[in-house]
Fold these 4 entries.
Entry 1:
Amino acid sequence: MRCVFVQFRCSPGKTYGVAEAIYDREVVSELYSTSGDFDLMAKIYIPEGEDIGRYLTDRLFDIPGIDRTLTTITFRAF
């Protein structure tokens, strides 16, 4: 499994609805409300061999109320 973090910027007043929709899809391992430029951050494990962009696009990025995302791919450092 490949671990990625995705941050979500939501339309005003839509953060709770977006969070519920993300949980309903049963894709994320963890989901947090955050301060700063983005409203939510999710920890997601992508199955080996899956295209990360397609996996996320097909499962999450079509949720209404998401204005922008930022995906951070993790690497094993040690």
Entry 2:
Amino acid sequence: MADTRERRTKSSSAAGSSKDRSVRGAEDAARSACRTLTGLIDHPSEGVSAVSRTDDGWVVNVDVLEVARIPDTTSLLATYEVELDNEGGLVSYRRISRYRRGSADS
């Protein structure tokens, strides 16, 4: 049984090595976009509000906390559109909106 587990580990790691660099789905794209954007703009991500597949990769809308305030409902957040290639590499990003946490969508 240990031999079977060892063979599975070796074969799956050898087979998956080329796939490790590509985005495997919407969840993977969202994680990659959050991690990359947080590293670039140095603001914590609050979540993802949209993910879409394109011919060339992924477009992810990431919500980030730009200015923390007290009370929390007056904090300023922003939504960034992050474009990734098929491997999860950053192609572009831009802020598409800025809003107060307590405000409703217009």
Entry 3:
Amino acid sequence: MKYRRLTKQQFEELHQEFINFLATQSITGEEWKQLKADKPEVAEEELDVFSDLIWEGVLNKVTYLENISAQQMHLFELTDKEMKLISVKVMNPKIDLQTTVGFNWFKKNWQSDFVDYLTASKAYGEDKNLDKFNLIQQGAVITKGDLYKWFDSMIEVN
């Protein structure tokens, strides 16, 4: 398995896609039930293969990721050739960017001396999707990139 198995909830949400996947493997509903009962290790392999296919499809489409903690934001743009990062660090320990109050403070004070910025870019390793997946495993979430784009435009202006 290249990534990680989908959760039970994700499998439930992708129920029809999983049925279609089994059909491409020429496995009927009855055969699937029998496979789970008689050869659970083979059934487990099918779940893993399906999970990897889903992850691969999702990761191919990901363009922006965000990882926001109490005092830091790591905003990523994932281009064809590299990962671009805008890192934001709040040096006020009383501020928690994960709260509405903290984020509102940040919106008013983003240019203050209490906020540091860093930009960087890094080429992908051998497997671009695995690099993206690792960021997600570390807590990043897939977004539309609104925060990244806003900061990127502010950085270009200054």
Entry 4:
Amino acid sequence: MPPRLQLTAVTVGTSQPRELARFYAQLLAWPVTEEQGPGPGEPAEAGWAQIRPPRGEPGPGVGFEYERSYARPVWPSEPGKQNASQHLDIKVDDLPAAVEWALACGAVLAGLQPQDDVRVMLDPDGHPFCLFL
């Protein structure tokens, strides 16, 4: 029998970890639970941050970690370009209202929308995320 394993967080590589944590904290109404600035000799944008669901709500946290060589993903993927190897799926009750909220928080609506009940959005650092019913 395997040992007990528990997923506690997903970490997103980014050029702006603290700013991206604040974006998703606002979008999801989750608190930023941890934040750390750059280490010695690192650029000002380096560091990491984490958001977690409010107390009593289930789900893993989301971490944002500085990537020195971060390349903004292209969505949908294109040959020879940086692709998004993963994305966040966010369930919503009202898709038009959720899109409006995401835009107000700083997201951008992706140019291609392949499904009627899903909206692909791009966060301020270019990561795609999906809002779905």
